[in-house]
Write a structure and sequence with these properties.
Distance between the termini: 25 Å
Helix content: 10-25%
Structural class: alpha+beta
Number of helices: 3
Order of helices and strands: HEEHEEHEE
Shape: globular
Largest sheet: 2 strands, antiparallel
Number of domains: 1
Length: 122
């Protein structure tokens, strides 16, 4: 697990690399594309290590309060890949889905469009 954390911290992940060798004998991909809408356990762990808290502007709620969100919704051809996944607390995840705010960009450079159109995500 520490090797995965180190790779994520350095942002040197190759999407084709496999994760979590210490937990599973079988290796699991971190990017699954359109094959599944559901985020896998290794993907969630990778997003939590990368994002550390809710990524909505001004929010620092911990990962235990959050959900992994597709920036480009899966129904809109979004992929279940690390670059399209972001950690949001349940409050902000609900806000995004109810239309009070929107997300665009990538996980490395996400942008939140609030009602006033502002909000680069940290």
């Amino acid at each position: 697990m520490s090797a995965l954390r180190s790779l994520l911290a350095q942002r040197s992940i190759d999407p084709r690399t496999l994760s979590d060798r210490e937990v599973h004998e079988e290796l699991e991909p971190l990017d699954v594309g359109r094959a599944s809408r559901t985020v896998t356990a290794p993907q969630r762990r990778a997003v939590v290590v990368r994002d550390r808290h809710c990524r909505f502007p001004g929010c620092d709620r911990p990962p235990g309060w959050g959900d992994v969100h597709h920036i480009v919704h899966w129904l809109d051809q979004g992929r279940t890949d690390l670059d399209n996944l972001i950690l949001l607390c349940r409050r902000h995840h609900t806000l995004v889905h109810e239309g009070g705010s929107g997300l665009s960009g990538t996980a490395r450079r996400p942008v939140s469009a609030r009602g006033d159109g502002s909000g680069r995500i940290s």
